[in-house]
Amino acid sequence: MLLAQVESNQIAMVIIIAAILWLALILVALYHISRNSNIGFSVKVLWFIIILLAPFLGSIIYLMWGKNKKF
Questions:
Q1: Would you say the pTM of this structure is higher than 0.90?
Q2: In angstroms, rounded to a whole number, what is the distance separating the alpha carbons of residues 69 and 71?
Q3: Is pLDDT larger for residue 59 or for residue 71?
Q4: Which of 29, 35, 40, 46 falls between 20 and 30 A from 12, CA-CA?
């Protein structure tokens, strides 16, 4: 019984850490969009919508591709 509880606690910790990292990724992308002066307002709104609709994938795409582009 104790072994099952330890495994359950470890799984919970992994899930909590993953959720915190996922939230940090989204917040970093949204922060970068809001501070990027090379992007027009309409493009910023579009990136915000993309990240809000597909948080993980949208954040990754923006940080890898979109942050260095001029629109």
A1: no
A2: 6
A3: 59
A4: 29
